[in-house]
Amino acid sequence: MELDWLSIAALVVVVALYVVIYVLRSKKQLNFTFTILGALLAGVVVGVIFAGHTDWIIPFGKIYVTVLSAIVMPLIAVSILSAVTSLGSVKQLRGIGARSVGWLLGTNLIAIVLALGLGLAFGVGEHADLSIEGVDAANFEAATPSALSIIVGFFPRNIVDDLASDHIIPVILFCVLIAVSYVLVAHQEGAKVRVFKDLVEATKAVIFKAVTFIIELTPYAVLSLVAVQASRGLENTGIIWSLLVFLLVAFLAFIIDTWVLNGVLLSVFTNVNIFKFFRRIVPAQVIGFSTQSSVGTLPVTTRILTEEIGVSPSVANFTAPLGTTIGMPGCAGIWPILTAIYGINGLGINYSLKDYLLLVVIGLFVSIGVAGVPGTATVVTASVLTAVGLPLEVMVLTIPISSIADTGRTATNITGAMVAATIVAYEEKELNVSPPDADGEPLDEAADAADAEAFPEALTGESCPI
């Protein structure tokens, strides 16, 4: 059998580029986004130069997709258990906890519907002509189950089998059941079940560390997968323009959700002046946009909620952190839905109204298990695609623009959590309405001065570690 020297050369070049990526990330501390973009460009160049000779590169990208798939279910399970068990008491569960979860999910549902509408209206993914190794679009056009079987399938039957079969919604419901049961038992016998909570938190720490390792492999996967796609015709502008449209539609969705829809919610469900509200949360939005970390922005988020908006500490310190685990309209609402539509249109899959409704439901359920770690959108998108039977390769192909969109996603997440906290505080009568200020938003000049002083330091990232 004659050796394909060009394929060997392509493999050698890719391995050499892997070494370059490793040095840039570990030794030079190159920004993750810049590394991703560099890997994208390198992949295009390799694919064009070695067109038709990239078969030996395929396994590298496939390994990443496989490992990512393996971590999704454990991550979803431990995130839900941690989020709900953190409620701590029956009173919190019934009051602030229930309202917080409801509004965080509600704002995400609005974002999901918005993304679905914009994605279909702008035809995200159309004419991309995606061709994924080993994936035949016809495989995804098989008859869908009946509505009754879909509803029955939401509920767990055998949790081990559900975990092994990637049945995400039954796993979510099972974890919610266990977590709520823990809260109720802990109210009576806290010391007896404390070990369960400790185990959940210990497992969460380990799983999150594993996710960090996997996310670090993303540039290598992007290089391999893009090189293969370029080898098969990525130099044709179809997929490039489709990704550009995807990115523009995503930012349009972020803008509409952040300022328009959230403004409507505040106007309808509170008496807060929306113009003052949005003016005063700008520091949190900018820090989130810059650091791309909802968790890292929490100190600023909670301070603004308590000192600038008038939300009580009990609500601000509960709802805002919970918003880094449940909801997150940017990472868990808009982006996964647009990615799914991109794959549906790009692969030419015939989706019915019932299929899209199921996509909305799955997107909402999966958002309960969002992990507040870097790479959240990647993991959640993988969960959604897995649940609806779309190939994860679609998600990986969007990672280069995903890193750019992460700025807008994070700002959207933070805004959604702050809006939810404000509405919860208003409904729980935990919003400080200053008598001199008829619009319901306290005027605190000292807080404004504190913002001006703290803001430059916050932007350095020293007080907002990812």
Describe this structure in words.
This protein has 466 residues and is mainly alpha-helical. The protein has one domain (5-70, 93-151, 208-459): Proton glutamate symport protein, CATH 1.10.3860. 74% of the residues lie in helices and 0% in strands. It has 19 helices and no strands. The protein has helices spanning 5-27, 32-49, 58-85, 90-121, 147-153, 159-164, 168-216, 218-234, 237-269, 274-280, 282-291, 298-309, 313-322, 329-346, 353-366, 376-388, 392-397, 399-427, 445-459. Helix 3 packs across helix 7 and helix 13 (313-322) packs antiparallel against helix 18. The protein is globular. The termini are far apart. 48% of the residues are buried. The model is unreliable at 134-147 and 435-466 (pLDDT under 50).
